[in-house]
Amino acid sequence: MKAAFTLAVLVLASSTVAASAVEIAPHRALYAMTLGSAKSNSGIIGARGTMVYEWGETCDGWTVQQRYRLRMQYAEDGEVEISSNYVTWEAKDGLRYRFNERKLRNGEVDEEIRGVARLDGPGKGGVAEFSRPSVSRLDLAPGTIFPTRHTIELIERAMAGDQFLARHVFDGSGGENAVEITAAIASDPNSPAKSGAKSPLLQRPSWRVRLAFFPAGSTSERPEYELGMRLHDNGVSADMVLDYSDFTIKARLDEIEALPKPSC
């Protein structure tokens, strides 16, 4: 299962975060993960787990740490435990990015990815350099952006009343090049989230958003997977559903707390 909650959990008007009208709230959130639905041919009969998502702020950038542990139950193969620790840093100008991802399957290392990426300027291309699993290099096409820039652009579009956004986003996961993410934004900013958490962080305008993820170089009309969520104007996400076509995973926001802002 790919760490698709990065908003990273998670994509206008400005080329840098500093000039944006969006005010991101650094926070730590705990989600309960369960099986939403599964087709009979999926072989999946159950799923349960937890995810901790931390979005922090430094003077010159944004940090994201996403940790999840998910137990998948299969009709024929029994239970499989999948866990992941995904850590990133992204410059506030959107031009530099560091990423580190480690995945385990039944306690054994399944995948480890580490690297850095940079863009030559707003709207320009750049390069990603991997140090794990092996030394390699990818060219990033003009127009590529990193995950935090994508989330901020998505909020900007929602605040402007737009209902669609398509961007190529590089997050480093899976060792792949930038994926195409198309977003559909529903214009219901006052509809409350259905989370179990209570916090002033949730008493903010929000929108129902559905993201479709297409792999790099794909010509398919069908996405690899989709992510539905309620996205607040401060960057907090709730009511998330990962849709892999054959099955869905729900992530319910159970706890949330504010993290301190830096004194710069």
* Shape summary: globular
Spatial strand arrangement across the major sheet? 8-7-6-5-4-3-2-1-14-13-12-11-10-9
Radius of gyration: 18 Å
In total, the number of strands is 14
The major sheet is characterized as:
14 strands, antiparallel
Assembly status: single chain
Q: What pattern of helices and strands is seen along the backbone?
A: EEEEEEEEHEEEEEE
Helix content: under 10%
Count of domain modules: 1
Distance between the termini: 38 Å
List the total number of helices.
Answer: 1
- What is the typical, i.e. mean, pLDDT? 89
Low-pLDDT residue intervals, each spanning 5 or more residues: 1-19
Please characterize this protein's 3D structure:
It is a single chain. The termini are far apart. Helix content is 5%, strand content 52%. The protein contains one helix and 14 strands; from the N terminus they run ββββββββαββββββ. By secondary structure, the chain is mainly beta. It has one helix spanning 147-159, and strands at 27-38, 44-57, 61-74, 78-91, 96-105, 108-119, 126-132, 136-140, 164-169, 179-186, 206-214, 225-232, 237-243, 247-258. The chain has one domain (17-258).
